Amino acid sequence: MLEYFQTRRAFSTILLVAIFFGLGTYIGLNNRPEINKVVNVLGKETAVSTEADFSPFWKAWNEINDKYPNISKITDQNKVYGAISGLVSSLNDPYSIFFKPDDAKLFQDSIQGNFGGVGIEIGMKDKILTVIAPLKDTPAYKANIKSGDKILKINNLTTSDMSIEKAINLIRGDVGTTVTLTIFHEGDIDPKEVKMVRDTINMPTLDIESRKDGIFVIRLYSFSANSAELFQNAIKEFSASKSDKLILDLRGNPGGYLNAAVSMASWFLEGGKTVVTEDYGSNAKPKVYRSEGYNIFTDKLKFAILIDGGSASASEILAGAMQDYKKAFLVGEKSFGKGSVQEMVKVTPDTLLKITVAKWLTPNGKSISEKGLDPDYVVSFTKKDIENKNDVQLNKAVELLNK
């Protein structure tokens, strides 16, 4: 009999241990930092080290599964994609974005194919979709779209919380079709609808003008693949003109190829001088882009650069380098402030992550991305200037060069 009770007590003890072990395992699995569960849904086993408490995530996951109507129509995979999108949005960086399969395909098609559009470069400013610059002689340019205009709607869709890539895809379309943008222009009381017919967009690059007052003007509209060669030809014409006064107009220039900006800066800087630095923070050593040292001009060169809110990216790199080395003075308005580097990462075979990996710094270490460039001479247009087509910024540059 004693052996019976001992055996039964031992069995009960084992049973209780098994129950508590099972409960502990269940509680542990449902309250540990469960990043592995998220990763496993994607079919991977990568372990991630984090001190974050993931129990709120799984509580929300379970509540959604238990209570959301028609949850059976939403796959776990789509919920994971939504979670990744939320993770990326926590960076508060408008240029970092996660592309789900359909969006990834649209993005890849957009950078490989030829599409109709209206000819505007757009970005985020204070979390609002904003026109960086209209391209010359495009539907947007002819519709009087301006740098700094806020895009509130594309057709009937509001742009709040809309990514730049989605906005681009909505604005693009077949040549001959119409797109309607609801625009708010600074100084206006109410937004207005602007209808434009999509057209084939040919990127303008460069114009030159040799003025009667002896000032040579180069108007650079984009840093395209052939812009460095065109700029070289323009510099040759400037040299042949025997003028020592140069205006480089970068207003409304949304940027383009980094190497083109470095090449252009090299005409004015000694070899080895820093043009721009890619700052990767603590993730990697900074990458420095240096002048190739063409440096054909003497100290007698009088050089002005025009900038405005539409001057972005490569425009800011070139203008920032010239300002820091005191090779040129800047006239106009604060530049846009698009100074970051993005990298494309394949998360899965059919999804993409575009993530900011570095920021551009001027030779003096100023972050272009945070504040843009401040002109040495701030000159703004009044409504009367615009009506009278009075280019007060160009006039100021001419006045300073002629002193």
SS summary, helix count: 13
Structural category: alpha+beta
Give the termini distance in whole angstroms. Answer: 116 Å
Arithmetic mean pLDDT: 86
Biggest beta sheet attributes: 6 strands, mixed
- What percentage of residues falls in helices of 4 or more residues? 25-40%
- In total, the number of strands is 19
Q: How much is the radius of gyration in Å?
A: 28 Å
**CATH architectural type of the largest domain:** Alpha-Beta Complex
What's the CATH first level of the largest domain?
Alpha Beta
CATH overall fold name of the largest domain? 2-enoyl-CoA Hydratase, Chain A, domain 1
CATH superfamily of the largest domain: 2-enoyl-CoA Hydratase, Chain A, domain 1
**Widest β-sheet, arrangement of strands:** 10-11-12-15-16-19
Structural domains: how many: 3
Identify the overall geometry: globular
Low-confidence stretches: 1-45
Q: Approximately how much beta-strand content do the residues carry?
A: 15-25%
Describe this structure in words.
The protein folds into three domains: 15-74, no CATH class; 114-200, PDZ domain (Pdz3 Domain); 206-341 and 357-401, 2-enoyl-CoA Hydratase, Chain A, domain 1 (Alpha-Beta Complex), CATH 3.90.226.10. The protein is 35% helix and 24% strand. It has helices spanning 2-31, 35-41, 55-67, 76-89, 101-112, 139-142, 164-171, 227-240, 258-265, 314-324, 368-371, 383-387, 392-401; strands spanning 97-99, 116-117, 120-125, 128-134, 150-154, 157-158, 178-184, 192-197, 199-200, 206-210, 215-220, 245-249, 274-279, 287-290, 302-307, 329-332, 340-348, 351-361, 377-378. Strand 17 and strand 18 (351-361) form a beta hairpin. The protein is globular, with a radius of gyration of 28 Å.
